Amino acid sequence: MTRWNTSHIPDQTGRAAVVTGANSGLGYVTARELARRGARVVLACRSAERGTAALSRLRAEVPTAEAEFRALDLADLASVRRFAEGLADFCDDRLDLLVNNAGVMALPQRFTADGFEMQFGTNHLGHFALTGLLLPKLLATPGARVVTVSSMLHALADVDLGDLNSECSYHRWLAYGRSKSANLLFTHELARRLAAAGSQVVAAAAHPGYAHTNLQTAGVRMEGRQSAERVVELGNRLIAQPAEGGALGTLCAATAPHMRPDAFIGPRNGLRGAPARSFRAPWTRDDRTAERLWAASEELTGVRCDITVPGA
What we know:
Helix content: 40-55%
Oligomer: single chain
Largest sheet: 8 strands, mixed
Number of helices: 11
Strand order of the largest sheet: 3-2-1-4-5-6-7-8
Radius of gyration: 18 Å
């Protein structure tokens, strides 16, 4: 993967992809580059206004794109179910690629429509439910992949299985780190279960390093902390790489041939640069924790992620 870039993306003609949070930043770049290489892409976004604007922009940048916007609010499990049920007319019984990209970061304490802490509920539980509901399509598609976007900041904290909803205490950055560790534990357990079932579906994870997106400023903006917002924006300008660079890890995990299951791909030096296998905290490969988180996620979402390989 030395110096891997978008020119290395194989032809995606005939492949169907779903990218969550594709209205801006990493998700938009991921959807655009997949469409540029011929994939049919669903931009799965919470805001209809921003989603349709992103679709118009994508079609202007890639006139040949086969793409469409569909509403998906990962902080509302009813919305997740509606999205999954409505996907049949887009890709029939197949789905080649699911990119679990959308997320929130370091918010003041908020809750999802179903009462979950917002970061855990959106970053992990929403994507867990979405993946589970789309698994039959993925399992029926040769060469399918699930790529979940985590973060270097997963290293801030392991999941707390005794307080998944941060009811005992809440610290925005620890909650974010736990949600990103949950992303990696989910990828680990999904990869393990797919292998045990004899499936060729690949579950991998990625991170963007430090990429300039609107994710960093959302929390301080919600609180009206203008000075903090200016500091974050300055850091974005001086240190961060653009979204085009941050999306390379995701695109590599999604399209590079022979991607290893449970791989974690990000910038070579951690913050920016060409994609490479990335450091991950040891707890994100703990089988027992991953299994317990999976069981808790099924209970909380009401979605069973059954892995049955067609024809097996």
